[in-house]
Amino acid sequence: MDTQWPRWEVFKQDTPHKPHQAVGSVHAADPEHALLTARNVFARRPQAVSMWVARAEDIYAWTREEILEGLATAKADTGLGAACRYLVFRKTTHKRSMTFVDHVGEVEATSPEEALQQAQARFTDSEALAWWIVPADKVYQSDPSQETVESWFAPARDKTYKQQQFYATVGSHISKHKVGRGVEDDECC
Amino acid sequence: MTNAAKEILIAKLTALADDEVILAHRNSEWTGHGPILEEDIALANIVQDELGHATLWYGLRQQLDGSDPDQLAFFRDANEYRCCELVELPKGDWAFTMLRQYLFDLYEAFWLEAARHSTYQPLADAVQKIIREERFHLQHTQAWIERLGQGTEESNRRLQQALEMQWGYAQQLFVSIPGEELLVAEGIVPDLASVKERWLEHSTRHLQAAGLRLPINPGYQPTSRTYHTEHLWSILAEMQSTARWDAEAKVW
Amino acid sequence: MPIKYGVPSDPDYNERLREFEARIARGEKIEPGDWMPEEYRRQLIRMISQHAHSEVVGMLPEGAWITRAPTLKRKMILVAKVQDEAGHGQYLYHAAETLGISREAMLEALLSGKAKYSSIFNYPTLTWADIGTIGWLVDGAAIKNQTMLAACSYGPYSRAMVRICAEETFHHKQGKEMVLLYAKGTPKQRQMAQDAINRWWWPALMMMGPHDKDSPNTEILVRWGIKTKTNDQVRQEFINEHAPEILEAGLTIPDPELRYDEATGNWIHGPINWDEFWQVVAGNGPMNKERLEARRRAHAEGAWVREALEAYAAKKQKTAVAV
């Protein structure tokens, strides 16, 4: 009865020197709407300079466990022939985080499975716990122009009223009332 | 600046701020009731920006005559407000809200563009801040007009109905306040006639491309910001209720 | 990748389960695609979707006061807070979707009354001070819970919680700031603040769920790293933090038996009225029907909008292919 729009994974780049990172997903009907929505959902607070979106169905994902169980072997040559660019994302730590996989680079391959193999051979500096492989032409990018970055991402910096450090902690400190080793709410993340 | 110009500028800043406050109020009525969760988030962003803009404009007035922004927003009666009638209209359905937002965002975008070179530096500075947020608003609402206009027969019909209702009201955005020509002559604010030209050209094109027909007869067109719809009294009664409930309170 | 969720009748279930629990014990995150027991998936879907529903329904009691906020600043802050709640619901629905359940199915469960959401949001917001009190007490309780869940073994839920935690602290602080201000404000403000505390204290305590002895799910949730503290533990932490602060502000707490126990360092509270809790959970609280009705109406009235977006996207894809 109702509509179920495609899910789009969102990648956010905090600063020009950091890679794009998977921050979560949005539902949207088309690429432009997905980018606008991604900005509203994930750039409410600093920082961001760029966003990418890709339909979840266009992303090939494998965890280390799946790879070890042989679920990522390349299919027999289907004669697709033409190589295309794939973007590679990787997770390397179990540490607590709000992001999943990071962009590490790209490869050229004739299939996602082959792209994964190339990625595994190329990006060896850290053990990979999960991989995402996405055809480059399925990734939509926010406009990189200065004007867009100024209007899409800069305004969040001025919204200081949403940042907890701008609120005075009035009243006695919570540490006075802890029993044993509780977790301070400020220690959360 | 002459005293005469200062008085008119105070009136103009009040009008700019009042538009933002009342429009933000109407948009905030959608919170928790939007058609999609993601759009609740999007409209809430627009509301925050509009409240920020209202604060900036009232702040500029405060620099000129010392009035406190919260006093202006929460303790003036309806007959003292200087918002246009378009922003007072009830939120209607999603098409109504998106169309109003688009018409208003487009006007703001062109007005701000022209106001960047204001000879009054505080205004030029405020415009710099506001203009980048407005760019995103316009992208967002433009996208909605396209999608609702070209979506289904029902969405097109609802958008068309909204346009029939709002087109006449929207013309008031380009009606000067008394004495505004003095501010224009001194380069403090842009000339609304040329802003209107660009607005008419762009909106006509975009609305028609979205599959809408411009009303042949725009109907009622308000001419003065001292005159309001029936709605403003009730809007303010609600908006000001807590502040007025304890007018003694110094801090909230 | 298509995932198979393990059930006890699978031949390799016990071996897989051992390795799964060992992974969790090692502090590893379980990600979509990894083997997991069907029961783990079921528990997570229940918890995450309930959490998501709570955020979205929670927008209503506070959202109602945006139009009556007393200053421009407070209005902006409240809009930001409610926007965050929508955002949190959004992150959580998406985390649940990684377990193979659709947004539509979750919404259907909520709107039909089958799915639960936090009982606290079935109470009415009667004054402006309720907004500050909710920020202080309700979000205060939520933070305790969320801090614990940020360590959850399921990757997508953990990541959503870490993001939520980072944003939630501002909710708590702005609420506390408001109530402390009003407690020292005009007589009307003081009375309003005290009245709000009187109405929200007990529902806030109930937010942390039934006593441990009445919570059947706890044991397995703890073993599988979904919960790391029990309801009573979290509740005790909450009272230890908030009771002295409320009293220090010059306000009273509506619990005549509340006292500080030197020996344990804990604040001991009086009996909780669980009848009220279960009534509210069963749908008989002051606002249950209205909350659900508001969500149903929003969803129904939004159907034509969602259809329009889908129709537009389909048209665009057709033209793209044609070119």
TrEMBL record, chain A:
Source organism phylogeny: Bacteria, Thermotogati, Deinococcota, Deinococci, Thermales
Q: Which InterPro entries match?
A: PaaB, PaaB_sf
Protein name, as recorded: Phenylacetic acid degradation protein
Pfam (any one): PaaB
From TrEMBL, chain B:
Cellular compartments per GO CC: cytosol
- Highest taxon in the source lineage: Bacteria
In Pfam terms, one family for this protein is: PaaA_PaaC
An annotated GO BP: phenylacetate catabolic process
The entry's protein name is: Phenylacetate-CoA oxygenase subunit PaaI
- Species name for this entry? Meiothermus ruber
Gene, per the UniProt record: paaI
From TrEMBL, chain C:
What start-end ranges are recorded for coiled-coil regions in this protein?
none
GO cellular component terms, A-Z: cytosol
Check the record and name the Pfam families matching this protein: PaaA_PaaC
Q: Name one GO biological process term.
A: phenylacetate catabolic process
SUPFAM superfamilies reported for this sequence: Ferritin-like
Question: What InterPro entries does the entry give?
Answer: Aromatic_CoA_ox/epox, Ferritin-like, Ferritin-like_SF, PaaA, PaaA_PaaC
Task: Write down the species.
Answer: Meiothermus ruber
Question: Can you say what this protein is called?
Answer: 1,2-phenylacetyl-CoA epoxidase subunit A
**What top-level branch of life does the organism fall under?**
Bacteria
